[in-house]
Write a structure and sequence with these properties.
single chain, mainly alpha, MetI-like fold, globular
Length: about 300
């Protein structure tokens, strides 16, 4: 405990961090709430002396705007698809890595590399991998990416994944593959750390009893790893609702293939679009709605994990 007479020194040492938090965290949050409650607020109008009514007009406009509902649907769909797949794959890979002794450190480093690589650069690589540009004649293609080349080995015609004229579900498939691949490193690292902390006596006892590997995995590994799994799932949903850079990396600022812009826009993209048109009030309202959705989903995850987690 710090002596009360000397506590001023602790506050003095903490003051720079506290000031920075107040200026760059607390005040932006308060300002966002204030702007969201000023109907039709925009900075240019505020500078010019325009007055704005206090109310919930920004929220009602955003919720009734069809384009926002499309962004919300895209965001929820990507979360529902990518979170379970990436979590299951990360768990399986972490279990395999934990069982490998030779070159384990090297393999961990290789799997972690995507996490420290620029998201936009990776998105451009994925766009090239899934490309398919038709030629002037039917059945002739000017450019085919590695994915379509692999499909061609199995006799499958090239699929227009992300270029002009591509379909919505093909676009969703490309983005989902990218998000899953990009989310694996962090999840593998967390789950691998959890696996290495499990007491080996549980596995020794299961081996003595002649328990199968599948039953050992389901009855020992998964329950004892449940705190880490709960953490991974919760953070995955939070990150999924903030998805934006992956779509920009693959499709560019249009958030969709040429000829069908904004078809894959997300809630974060909607907020950026509102800011670009100087509609700061509506952008703030959309940001608070997004915060509310993430908060509710997190509470649900915490409630479920509390009943299923073994500590």
């Amino acid at each position: 405990m710090v002596d009360n007479k000397q506590s001023w020194k602790a506050w003095l040492y903490l003051s720079p961090a506290i000031v920075l938090l107040l200026v760059f965290t607390a005040w932006p949050i308060v300002n966002t709430v204030l702007m969201s409650l000023l109907e039709g607020y925009n900075n240019l109008g505020a500078v010019g002396g325009q007055t704005f009514n206090f109310g919930i007009g920004n929220f009602t406009y955003v919720l009734q705007y069809k384009y926002f509902l499309q962004c919300l649907a895209n965001t929820c769909l990507l979360c529902v698809i990518t979170v379970p797949i990436s979590t299951i794959l990360a768990l399986l890979i972490a279990v395999c890595l934990n069982a490998i002794k030779p070159l384990q450190r090297l393999l961990q480093t290789i799997f972690f590399l995507p996490y420290v690589t620029n998201s936009i650069a990776i998105g451009m690589v994925f766009a090239a991998m899934f490309t398919m540009i038709p030629g002037a004649m039917p059945g002739v293609y000017d450019s085919v990416g590695i994915i379509n080349n692999v499909l061609g080995v199995f006799g499958i015609d090239p699929i227009n994944w992300a270029n002009t004229g591509s379909g919505y579900w093909e676009n969703i498939a490309v983005v989902s593959v990218y998000i899953v691949w990009n989310a694996l490193p962090f999840k593998i690292l967390v789950l691998l750390g959890g696996l290495q902390g499990i007491n080996k006596q549980y596995y020794d006892a299961a081996k003595v009893d002649g328990t199968s590997r599948t039953r050992t995995f389901l009855r020992i590994t998964v329950p004892l790893l449940s705190p880490m799994l709960a953490y991974v799932v919760i953070t995955s949903f939070i990150g999924g609702f903030k998805e934006y850079s992956s779509i920009v990396g693959i499709f560019g600022a249009d958030m969709g293939p040429s000829g069908n812009p904004r078809v894959l826009n997300t809630m974060v993209g909607f907020i950026y679009d509102a800011l670009a048109t100087e509609a700061q009030g509506r952008a703030s309202a959309a940001a608070l709605i997004l915060f509310g959705i993430i908060f509710i989903v997190t509470l649900i995850n915490l409630y479920v994990s509390k009943k299923k987690t073994h500590y």
